[in-house]
Amino acid sequence: MKIKEVSSPSFYVNLLTSFIVLGSAVQVEAHLIIPGVVSYNSEHYYSEGTQKSEVETQPLIMTYEDNNGLCEKPALSRGNLIRQPDFNSLDGWRGYYTSGVNVTRNKQTKECGIDYQVVISSRNNYYDGLIQKIKPTLSTTKEYTFKANLKLNKSEEKEFGLAALALKNDLGIVYCQYLAVDQISSNDKTLTGKFKVNALGEIKQSYLLLFGPKGSKELVIDEVRIAEVDNNTHDPNTLFKHDFETDNAGWLPAWLNEVPVISGMQAKSGGFSLYVKGRDHWYSGAKLPITQWFSDKKKYTLNLSALLSAGTNQAQKLSLQLYYVDDKGAHWQRIYSTSIPVAEQWVDIASDFTVKPQGTLKKAEIYVFGPEANVDFFLDDIKLTQQDAKPSDGDKPGDGDKPGDGDKPGDGDKPGDGDKPGDGDKPGDGDKPGDGDKPGDGDKPGDGDTNGSGLFKKMTSAECIDGQYREPQRANPQINIEDILSNHNPNAAVSVLSKTVTKALEKRYPFGAEILSQAPDSSGQKCLTYWMQRAKSTWGDLPTSELFHGADLSVHECGHGLSHKLSGWSTQALPLTKGTAPVCPVRGPYEYPPLYNLQHDNFSKDVPNNHYDSTYINKGSPVGKQGWESVIDEAVQYSHSLAIGYAFHDYTTYGSDADGALSFAWYIQRYLYFLHDNYPEIYQEILGNACWREAILKLWGKIWMYEDLALALDEPSNHDNLTSENTTLFIKAIQRPELMAEIEAVRKAHQCN
């Protein structure tokens, strides 16, 4: 964000000073009597018994057929000791502490379906909240993890949210153990912790308490989880075992229209399986990179279960293939082929195979495909194990290691025919009109696909979605707005200035005006009004040169607000342009490595004295503590700043729009590079998600489209809104081969080339 304000905590000091930190859990040493567990006043609730809080209760109805059902969250349910953790019902939950507390559910409709969160209102004390008895009671010999999402409802001020256990021992003593304490605001906040029960005797009963903000402030709670830490040892010969109870385990789309997702419609074991859908070819399916598990002269066994989707009217083939690259090139090797019956029953498959690369094994992937186009299927219980290989394994004819043995899918015209897998179906191969043309060709006349500096073509790939990026209402500085500005008064009221800004944006950058119209209010005012007031108080009078700095500031900050409005507890929306606002999955707050890891990396000196560094990647900056969700959101907003700087370059003579956008293009590369080496699981989580790949590449295309156009402008040398002394440094820094490789990795993961 362009202006970042963070208030230091100035309340609950007395409360917090009584806490001591033990590991990642926060504990209170004194024994406390917990209201709602032991009744000591008729105004307080019993947690059990005849008296109940007036709360809404409904039976849990799980529907998976379409998005009208409940939102599936298998990772939340697996091993969770909390009943109704997602508040699909309020069974097991009780309002807690005083009798006036009101517990209701807020219904939201997301892409995944119906989602609920609970709202605690009519609160009079900071410990008014929710309580649930944990069944079975917690053990003193086990370790647990805790997680819950808390936020304030319609409040701009920061408060504290708290989670605690109320424990009753065999002597009848009730005491409290705090699990997590953190500041919360109207933005989503995930409280987490790992703990062991602080035992004072034998634990007879255990309760979870969620509370914290000052009285009268409404508390919103969602996605509550307490689970045992899994310390089980695993068979060293088992390389992986995927049951899809929590996620898709890294399986990627292979010539597939949709990413394979976990689904509760079918399951061989547990409650979920991998759903392979959006298939428009027989070879559309799922793949898994397995290079890291393979070595020469090893024998492997692949186990899995497969099921055809309901409604399939004839048996279908299923093919398991290994694709690998060695010093001699690319090879396809059949692992197993079979027929899956129409009857709704799972088919179990187990097949041994050996990999015998010639030279170094550079890449290996398992593919599962085979049914006819538009036939969906499910996979479950996939396991890969290894054992010592026997001599001559893999040497027999037909095992896939010799040319022409018939093992390559679709020899001659389909994947594995010696050309690139998927030949005939990738953008740029000529099978779709205009997809092999230059960027912009095939668009409407006057869409601005020419007259750039050539940088867009250099920094993007014409075969991928970054090089094919278009905007239906691209910024256009050639539109005359003199009629709008003819009566502009630099000292006009904010309401008048806001109307002028809106009209100008509607002409030259319509999506900026759309952001302002859809953004939520800020501090009780319309977002545009609030930020134009800030601009006026900062710069005083707003002549046209300053007016569009105010427009830039407003769109940038309101863009953050719109992103938050469209996001959920575990998703992030990125409103990029009209009709394009990817909503991608995210981890909880502060679950990504902080941006300050970039502060002194190997690339930081390439642009010395970049003034954005001190705000965004400085270890002492609040923003520097944020991670992936921050860098990508800021990059989107700075892409709008760049578009506005270009749209009004004839009025605005100074600023840093280009430096801001280029900084974040650079930060994205550096952050991915950092994850690649230090957090490979998060790196694969991002690159393995089609939504994130599309968001990164479309954002990359947008930034370079506008930077390309900006550099083609003939501006006076004293203008530095779109160019500065750092522009050349930024471009050179971004073009570092190891950083460009990260963008290329996103393209390859998206099967662009």
UniProtKB/TrEMBL annotation:
Residues 387-456 are annotated as: Disordered. Signal peptide: none annotated. This is Carbohydrate binding domain-containing protein. The keyword Acetylation does not apply. It holds the Pfam family CBM_4_9. Residues 390-447 have a biased composition (Basic and acidic residues). Residues 79-212, 237-372 form the CBM-cenC domain.
